[in-house]
């Protein structure tokens, strides 16, 4: 099906078809309608590529990720897609796999394809070197941020996430808090701890150094840390964990050592990774980072940048808490404890 | 930076620049080189979009997935990217989320962007209705297949996967096989069982109906099935599981009921999903479906279709086995048992 077929059916020249479908040039309304009807009847698709050249925009954006693993990038992508109108702006996927040479190659490829802008996402939200593209190319970092203050980033609010977890444990009547989390070099670890300390101080809860344990982001570390807390009788009745895998390890080790969850010890995880949180015995109460919303917001801000808006800096979006059995709150809801002094 | 700047620097007209960079028209070699040098000096990017219009190809393909979840689509995407030369053909990501209206919308969007072809991937390999695009649009199904025999699909060989698992257990000296797997309506469940039965028959192993249990694809089902096998003394010394989550549930339930893995019962999982397989106690031996290779092969076949090659049907790629501790084979390697009669 070509422009020629449309011209024959509409009884006009191909130039007139071009005018009618591209919206350029002067035409009688009746002619334009006849051409459009003919195009529709024949199922002729106006060529988006050709049109985008005229408009100076391609209605494509690049999504450059280093999270091959997918756990964090999938909800991000869903949010980005939602914001970009499910197809009216197309997303090129580029997985740099944490490799700077691959990243450079992809950036060149995206620029030569004239994307309208680039979203950069990562496996963790720690600051990374800026992309190094010309300032005229709109860029937004999502679940990632750059070391340049002129860049624009959207990340979950880790301080808020830490506050939510501990505030919830305090309202569930717990007093002796422990925190088992990932490596201290992660910004997320430091910020979540900061939030946890704030909420603990406000609720009059205790979070001494001996109940604050950093290690790997793994179940094995969760089991090890729980064993340590029990064996040395550090007396925690609530454990806030830095991710759901750690929380699962903690729950398994406690159960296997005869401590009841949540009766003896309440647990809150982080990430609300359904596959882990729901499969844990008992299912995990967990902080949800709202990554879909992070993706959606980043895409909206990218569109604004493409239109020339100049916001920069780091935007931190609030988290939410998904309550399951591990925090012992569901039953308490019916008989709420006295508020903490 | 525009074509005009290049023309000024090279001392030629913009028409000559266009000829030199597009490769169209007659030009003296010396002139072409001067223009190219000027373009390079100024960092002028030839417009891929404009060039693709001339060549009739856009060097883009659409990846239409319904696996929002990402576990299966991520390795597929990596394979597809590798095959497409990491950026020389760009991939538009479209996540239809199992919704036919979204899928239709994305197909329209891909066609109007004139993609050279479409790869369709899914959350499971069962046959689905064909895309319903014009036969002139090249389509390949990856980890998915259509009900039309004219379509081309690449899927893992489930019969081979089932054979690998049971053959391994037989070589580890096991005699009394059980199979705990997902819902029987899945083609994968039927094919893996077929492979398991073939290998069992060849090795003289027993797989009676009472040790063949279908249920959900979950840890909870794995725990339930293991409890059943133990309580009713059905006497399995090896359990081949339909996925790693089931295998993990089986391993947990056996341990908690005092059965030693692998000493008393060997376990083989399926999917080789690192996060589950490596975190299980003991770590799971598991069948790897080779999804990266499925993605790579699908992309190569799509490129061949774009060039006009006509292969159709279902291509089944072999699986591999990743040996960890749960199957009790590592130690046996040093003291291999007598081959099964």
What fraction of the residues of chain A are assigned to beta strands by DSSP? 15-25%
The strand count of chain A comes to 14
Order of helices and strands of chain A: HHHHEHEHEEEEEHEHEHEHEHEHEEH
Low-confidence stretches of chain A: 331-341
Radius of gyration of chain A: 27 Å
Most extensive protein-chain contact, per-chain counts: A-B, 46 and 46 residues
CATH superfamily of the largest domain in chain A: Response regulator
Shape of chain A: elongated
What oligomeric state do the depicted chains represent? homodimer
Let me know the largest β-sheet of chain A. 6 strands, parallel
- Overall residue-averaged pLDDT value of chain A: 86
Distance between the termini of chain A: 76 Å
Examine the secondary-structure arrangement and name the CATH architecture of the largest domain in chain A: 3-Layer(aba) Sandwich
State the helical fraction of chain A: 40-55%
The third-level CATH topology of the largest domain in chain A is Rossmann fold
CATH classification class of the largest domain in chain A:
Alpha Beta
């Amino acid at each position: 099906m070509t422009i020629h077929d449309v011209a024959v059916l509409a009884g006009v020249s191909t130039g007139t078809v071009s005018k009618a479908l591209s919206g350029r040039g002067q035409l009688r309304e009746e002619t334009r309608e006849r051409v459009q009807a003919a195009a529709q009847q024949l199922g002729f698709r106006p060529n988006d590529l050709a049109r985008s050249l005229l408009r100076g925009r391609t209605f494509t954006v690049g999504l450059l990720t280093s999270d091959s693993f997918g756990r964090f990038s999938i909800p991000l992508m869903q949010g980005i897609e939602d914001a970009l109108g499910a197809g009216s702006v197309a997303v090129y996927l580029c997985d740099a796999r944490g490799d700077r040479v691959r990243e450079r190659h992809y950036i060149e490829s995206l620029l030569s394809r004239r994307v309208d802008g680039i979203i950069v996402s990562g496996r963790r939200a720690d600051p990374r070197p800026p992309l190094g593209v010309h300032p005229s190319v709109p860029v937004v970092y999502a679940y990632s941020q750059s070391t340049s203050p002129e860049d624009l980033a959207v990340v979950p609010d880790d301080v808020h996430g830490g506050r939510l977890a501990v505030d919830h444990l305090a309202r569930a009547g717990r007093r002796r808090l422990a925190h088992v989390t990932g490596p201290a070099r992660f910004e997320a670890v430091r910020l979540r701890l900061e939030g946890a300390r704030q909420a603990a101080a406000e609720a009059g809860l205790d979070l001494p150094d001996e109940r604050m344990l950093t290690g790997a982001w793994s179940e094995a570390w969760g089991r090890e840390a729980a064993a340590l807390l029990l064996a040395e009788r550090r007396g925690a009745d609530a454990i806030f964990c830095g991710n759901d895998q750690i929380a699962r390890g903690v729950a398994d080790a406690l159960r296997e050592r005869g401590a009841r969850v949540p009766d003896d010890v309440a647990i809150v995880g982080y990430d609300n990774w359904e596959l882990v949180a729901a499969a844990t015995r008992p299912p995990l109460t967990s902080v949800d980072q709202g990554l879909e919303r992070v993706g959606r917001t980043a895409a909206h801000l990218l569109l604004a940048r493409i239109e020339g808006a100049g916001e920069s800096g780091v935007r931190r979006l609030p988290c939410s808490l998904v309550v399951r059995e591990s925090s012992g709150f569901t039953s308490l809801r019916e008989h709420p404890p006295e508020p903490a002094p």
